[in-house]
## 1
Amino acid sequence: QVQLVESGGGLVQPGGSLRLSCAASGFIFRNYNMNWYRQAPGKERELVAFINSGGGITNYATSVKGRFTISRDKAKNTVYLQMNGLVLEGTAVYYCNARHSYMDYTYWGQGTQVTVSS
């Protein structure tokens, strides 16, 4: 069955770094655009980063541009989110999302908690 399994979350101090991973299985990874979303307590889920199915196009929320990097490894069916310069507002549950590049299929992971605190 389809699975998106996130890992790499945790507690980090302001200014620190984390790398999130999302391992995909049960679908044809290369046909899917991949996204990272986050949801902070009391707030709506927001799109943080996007990478297209081929890996050549990325896009970022303004709030993370220049600090976060999304990438994908087609051999490992995994998408990553490298987060540098984390700020307190980065505290949230981070979700991996797969969206088919031209059909109406979308999948979600279970989320991984990132807490930025001193």
## 2
Amino acid sequence: QVQLQESGGGSVQSGGSLRLSCAASGVTYRNYIMAWFRQAPGKEREGVALIKYDGTTKYADVVKGRFTIPQGNARDTMYLQMNSLKPEDTAMYFCAAYYGTLQPEFDPDDYHYWGQGTQVTVSS
């Protein structure tokens, strides 16, 4: 049973930085994609960044240049470095995992496992 646990959320001022972590346990699959999604009140869940088992990363346009998934970490830990945060980045951030041979991107329905989420609040 795969379990995901996020941490690192908090409150920051506009222009600040946060680093989120996602710890995965029970992983036995080789091919995986891990992603960060976020959901603000009254809005749909949206994908912001993902990393594939081969190290390939992809970012949503709204965070490109500000958010990164650092490379070189253990396969059971994923981070999201968030810089130049804006009030519109305020949301619950979720870690998600897909295990298989397809190539999902930012459709939340494609992901098998989810963490409980960590809140990020950016004040102006």
